[in-house]
Fold this sequence. Notes:
CATH superfamily of the largest domain: Copper type II, ascorbate-dependent monooxygenase, N-terminal domain
Number of strands: 22
Largest sheet: 6 strands, mixed
CATH class of the largest domain: Mainly Beta
Mean pLDDT: 90
Low-confidence stretches: 1-20
Amino acid sequence: MRIQYIVLLGALSLSGCGGDDGPDDPPADVTLPDPGANGWQWTTGTFEVPQGEEIQDCYFFEVPAGKPAFVNRITLAQNDGTHHMNVFRVKTVQALSGKHGEVVKGGECWKSGNWADWPLVTNSQSGGAVEDWNLPDRVGLRIEPGEMLMLQTHYVNGNTQATPTRGKVVVNFYGAGQSEIDHEMGTLFATNQNIRICPGDQKKTFEATCKVGQDGPVTVAAANGHFHSRGDRFTMNTWEPTAGKGEQFYQSSTWDEPPFTKDLSVPIANKGGITWTCEFSALASECGDPNDDCCFTFGGKVEYQEHCNAFAYYWPKGASDKNCF
């Protein structure tokens, strides 16, 4: 199967800056090899992240024409200083949209309600490194020709997180023929928006559950957690309708570089799902919202808001992917 190679129109070259970096030069921009006829590549190009700013932009891409593709490998690279990168399938359009090659800078790209029913495709929080994920044998993400995807990138150059260079994201999708795939990969994106951490709070914990919501068991293949700098510990467990909270299969105690745990094989019972827990601590001197006792509540701004988000990849997909907001 041949899949057309695409690069964002107007994006900078995928090559590095050229030459050896001097002692005062920033690191070279990340690159990935051309995936060739078996895949396609998208990039945000390089952009500046000025001191004291948070940049969150939404890039829209149209999947290449041709037969439906089953993606069985995804490779991601991001310049150092990234806070997160998510790719979603565009579904219900509210106030956020774009055509192929268009970018929405800030504004509606900060408002999570705009993608409340947009299924997750992939995510990464690894800055200055390459995340290379081969999906389980004979499992693939089905991507339709002409489907619109949105790549959201968030870089921070502030007090809690610094960007030592420019921002840039490159992603490669590698395709497989339908005869090579027996099961579709499903995705789960869940956010606990009922969080509130106040100055002086220590080890404050919030827990929520997201049901996969289908008949028959599924297998979790990969998982990732996400919170901001008040986060101490993130865990993910299985959940069953009768037994409730079950086996823990994911843990992170690093807010800025949480692990993307791959090669899992965690069974989820019939009509089951996941439970995820976020633990936070805030210094007495910190202030989130000055109009709310300086507490930190749900929101995308790293400096004064918090997140408690879970990402999970499972198969078989069933009727649909799952979002829990």
